[in-house]
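Could someone model phosphoric acid mono(formamide)ester with this protein?
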Amino acid sequence: MKTFFHVQDIGDLGAALAEAKQVKATPFAWKALGENKTIMLVFFNSSIRTRLSSQKAALNLGMNPIVLNIGQDSWKLETELGVVMDGDKSEHLREAIPVIGSYCDLIGVRSFAGLQDRAFDYAETILRQFIDYSGKPVISLESATVHPCQAFADLITIEEYKTCKRPKVVMTWAPHPRALPQAVPNSFAEWMNAADVDFVITHPKGYELDPKFVGPARVEYDQMKALEGADFVYAKNWSCPGVSCPADYGKILSKDMGWVVDEAHMAVTHDAFFMHCLPVRRNMIVSDAVIDSPRSIVIPEAANRVVSAQVVMKRMLESL
Ligand code: CP
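Reply:
Sure, complex below.
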């Protein structure tokens, strides 16, 4: 595996889930695979889970992880070509990426959407430069439009907790005070469409995700109707994807607190498990009562981030 962006990169999902189970049961069985290998984890944005789970996964595989926080413990980097660099950016990605690539065997990159220019974000302009200029396998650790390590961990978690062959999984938009990217809902939709689940997306009008991620999923604008009979409720906020109105890209169109997932919402489900990628704003996205309930699986979901990252890194090491 040379890149990890999309569900197709992992190949057969059944095989990937079986491998995840094996990795979770015996995390140190491949320690020799990463001997004398280095992974560079490049962060343009903040993180707890992605940073720590990626480091832990690398250590489990015997690799040396190095974390680089761009703009904090590095020079500020220019990302756009053709600009006069007379501002606060001291170095261009065009030089920084091949230099980083020369010091490591694998690269993971966190680089959020700017939410200003849809074309720039949806072309994955920054991640593409890492692929083009590093010469090394590249993992998206949440880039402008996708968060595949999260979606893979989500699928592993659903597989562990499901009590029927084809569970109903509902991804619901929920309000948030700040404009957030669409990477998590995009990837979750992409992975659920590829999995054997009954997948429904619910959000207020105007929040339609890019059709390439929605795929064959059912979209239901009535949140309560969507949640009826759900086995898993996956809550997430996202800003306007700008599909029907490009001028609204990255904007907050609604802060309707009626969409906060509370006990009344969970009551219409099939005693659903509650999921969220974290970090989560309590009583904005989900009520205290729901996230603190025994049906909340947000912590095991986060723990599975080590497993998903380890499967991806293992496969990349095997194909070096
Ligand atoms: N879910 C997730 O990616 O968390 P962090 O932003 O803390 O890495």
